[in-house]
Amino acid sequence: MPDLLLGQTLTFTADPFETGEAAARHDPHGAILVEDGRIAEMGTATDLRARNPAARVHDYGRAVLSAGFVDAHIHFPQTAIIASWGKRLIDWLNTYTFPEEMRFADADYARRIAARTFDLTLANGTTTLCSYATIHPESVDAFFTEAQARGLRALAGKTCMDRNAPEGLRDTAQSAYDDSKRLLERWHGTDRLSYVITPRFSPTSTPEQLAALGALWAEYPDCLMQTHLSEQLDEIAWVRDLFPQARDYLDTYEAFGLLGAGAVFGHAIHLEPREKDRLAEMGAAVVHCPTSNSFIGSGLFDLAGLKGRMRVGLATDTGGGSSFSMLRTMAAAYEIAQLRGQAIHPAQLWWLATAGSAQALRLGDRIGTLAPGMEADVIAVDLASTPAIAQRAERAETLWEALFPTIMMGDDRAIRAVWAGGRDVTPAKAPPAPVRE
Ligand code: GUN
Ligand code: ZN
């Protein structure tokens, strides 16, 4: 039996960085007909109710019905060390991250943290994660097993490191290739899952390992490749020492076949002009991780400078990021842009967290917007979830003015319902919507 979701539908038919508010489609009395995991129809509540009398109706009242959020860069193994105090990137990795990632040799622990990550992110309205795992193949199995059990579209890869990481957290060029290939063949294209070839970043891979992963990518060009690029100045200086022949940081990937249209680079804050030109030329994507960039003290991403030239996604980057919420992440993106003298419109923020991230992951034809044929990943967002938000939203004269207080001050309390692949997967905390047969 089809499901009919009622509320204020909000989606995009274009990119609001190009066409402004006109890119958005908003129906204050909208409806989404969901059947067999996909959106069958979009329309007005009156029309779709009349034409689908047998559908189960889920009435979300004044809540905004949007595509689920897409977090384009997260480290699920860092869930338990989010908000660890007082370090910058390299010290933070050595002090907090590497000891925690060591624990993922234990498959049970990996399963428990993967489950916890999905519980937390679904509660925040995120229906797709693109995650780094650890060097342990078990951690990839744990992530995909938990995603599969929930019916989620999800992406991840084994994080490869064969130097500058502690004993117990290093693979080799050959084992990184072999393990990645085996995991890719097992998971890529299974249900809604995609494997992503994942060298952590150039400082923790030898040239041999980068070359091996470049060769693997050439064998499976429809996979994405994800890594980190130019996050902190100390890191960039270190890369220069480790790769004296490279023209710049991006070149340490490019030289080994790790730059292409399916490449997704996290952070990309301190880019040289050549790097920007080359990313644009090759059709690669970059991912803005604003809470992480301020939490670890990395710098101010140049959204206005990069957005017109290349695909840009938005992400929490937890545990470097300080929140699981894409609402909080939009707020941080807004604040960082303000510090650069740029103002991001609420339509642009919402687009980045949905369609923009989906496009950065080359999944824009499946998730990130609401339209017939798209996979039914839908969230219902309450625009009056706390007294502070409600009293501000009450004064709003436009949708954007009503949405912005939730972007700036909202959290998981604003997420009233979550649908993934056409199923209601709302975590237990929220009261269910009334179901009328
Ligand atoms: N650079 C290399 N590894 C990491 C990581 O785990 N988090 C962040 N923020 N940056 C990195
Ligand atoms: Zn990261």
TrEMBL record:
Identify the Gene3D superfamilies for this entry.
Metal-dependent hydrolases, Urease, subunit C, domain 1
Molecular function (GO) terms listed?
guanine deaminase activity
Report which reactions are catalysed by this protein. Answer: guanine + H2O + H(+) = xanthine + NH4(+)
CDD domains in the record: GDEase
Tell me the ranges covered by the Amidohydrolase-related domain, including all copies.
65-423
Q: How is the cofactor bound?
A: Binds 1 zinc ion per subunit.
Q: Where is the Aminodeoxyfutalosine deaminase/Imidazolonepropionase-like composite domain positioned along the sequence?
A: 30-55
Q: In which pathway does it act?
A: Purine metabolism; guanine degradation; xanthine from guanine: step 1/1
Which InterPro entries would you find in this protein's record?
Amidohydro-rel, Guanine_deaminase, Metal-dep_hydrolase_composite, Metal_Hydrolase, Metallo-dep_hydrolases, MQNX/HUTI_composite_N
Top enzyme category: hydrolase
Name any one Pfam family assigned in the record. HUTI_composite_bact
What SUPFAM superfamilies does the record point to? Composite domain of metallo-dependent hydrolases, Metallo-dependent hydrolases
Q: Which cofactor does it need?
A: Zn(2+)
Q: Which PANTHER family match?
A: GUANINE DEAMINASE
Relate the protein's function as given in its record. Catalyzes the hydrolytic deamination of guanine, producing xanthine and ammonia.
Q: Which NCBIfam families does the record associate with it? A: guan_deamin, PRK09228.1
Question: What family does the entry list?
Answer: Belongs to the metallo-dependent hydrolases superfamily. ATZ/TRZ family.
Q: What is this protein called?
A: Guanine deaminase
Lineage, broadest ranks: Bacteria, Pseudomonadati, Pseudomonadota, Alphaproteobacteria, Rhodobacterales
